[in-house]
Amino acid sequence: MRHGEAIAGRPDSERELSAQGQVEAERMAGWFGRQPLAGARVLVSPFVRARQTAGHVGRVLGVEPEVLPFVTPDDAPTAVIEWLLANTDEAPLVLVSHMPLVGLLTGLLVEGRGDRGLAFPTAAVAELESEVWAAGCARLVRFTAPADIR
């Protein structure tokens, strides 16, 4: 998941959600609440806007988001894949991060290419399935943006 719309400003890590971003995050949190995500973990970037978005999702799912320091906008998708290979079990994961990381990570997991990926509108979610979290091994099940939720 990409975080909701953020306000402009510096430093980048301290940017907060805009009013629209709060609405987007709440809308997607409601959507998450209707998904079969028993036992899910919510993983999040340390940046403020991502933590705010993950807070909405975590409240609906009844879990405290876990901060991962290597899922910021400029981090490499390979670091996330290495973490997934070492730390996943059968529990669903919700990763709340940033562009370009979420787009590149999705491209790498689904197509095996880390040089391009999906364009994520703010607060959009790419749902992936995989038996092994390695390059080219995942399947894109569904892509949902706040505008898709009625």
TrEMBL record:
Transmembrane segments: none annotated. InterPro entries: His_Pase_superF_clade-1, His_PPase_superfam, SixA. SUPFAM superfamilies: Phosphoglycerate mutase-like. This is Phosphohistidine phosphatase SixA. It comes from Billgrantia sulfidoxydans. The lineage of its organism: Bacteria, Pseudomonadati, Pseudomonadota, Gammaproteobacteria, Oceanospirillales. The gene is sixA.
